[in-house]
Amino acid sequence: MGGFLTLLSSTNLVQHVNFPTHNHNHTLDLIITSSLSKVSPDISFSFDTPSDHYPIFTHLNILPTPRPDPVSHSFRRISSINIEAFTQDLSSSDLVLNPPSSLDDLLSSYNTTLSTLLDKHAPIITKSGSHSNNPWYNSYLQAFKSFRRRLERTYKRTRDPQLLSALKTATNKYHSLLATAKKRFYSSLVHSRSSNPRLLWKTINQLLHRNSPSPLPSTLPSSSL
After folding, report:
1. Residue of 87, 79, 82, 75 lying closest to 114 (CA atoms)
2. Closest by alpha carbon to 142, among 66, 64, 71, 78?
């Protein structure tokens, strides 16, 4: 046993069972973790068994993995630009009507004009991941959403009627999966708290947004009255 423990130690492993687990005083049942692990096994055993092994019970103190910070992304709706309006604004700009004579000034005018027109016709939109803070949103939903997006991009490029039919089917299924995931999560949440009425009603009030602050101001200036 000493050689086995030495071998575990050489690979940064720890054996937590330090008592006999067999009726002949042998330690045959093992609970091994990494020496760097934050898991702290609370081990117990019982003699009440029909076998020659003692059952081992382990309670692990495992901290939940912290959620990642919400991810935001910025984009422009280039495909929604009104080409006619964009061309008209470009034609009436100083870049076209009164272009600079020097190369440096011309380059600067080119960059400034196009950036301004792009901000006007396709402004930058920044959004956070719509489901990044929703605990019911899982990796399968994310993968199916990506699949639906690929179908959408391919259909916009090809305009294939069969792809349009597949896109509609995928869209309906995605919304159905979202509804099912929400239902399962909230049903499980309510069920897990059903034994604690105070916590249960607190959860229900949060789900129904009953504790939302009033949109009305507490006071009004006399001038407004």
Report:
1. 87
2. 71
Q: Which of 190, 192, 185 is nearest to 205 (CA)?
A: 190
- Are the beta carbons of 122 and 76 closer than 8 angstroms? yes
pLDDT tens by residue, 22-57: 777 777 778 888 777 777 777 877 777 777 777 888
Which pair of structure tokens corresponds to residue 89?
A: 């604004």
Helix, strand and coil content of the chain, in percent to the nearest 5, comes to 50, 10, 40
Q: Give the separation between CA 179 and CA 146, rounded to whole angstroms.
A: 18
Token pair of 175, please? 């919304």
HSE-CB at 73 with a 13 A cutoff on CA atoms is 6
User: pTM, whole model, 2 decimals?
Assistant: 0.37
Query: In the numeric block, which tokens belong to residue 105?
Result: 């000034």
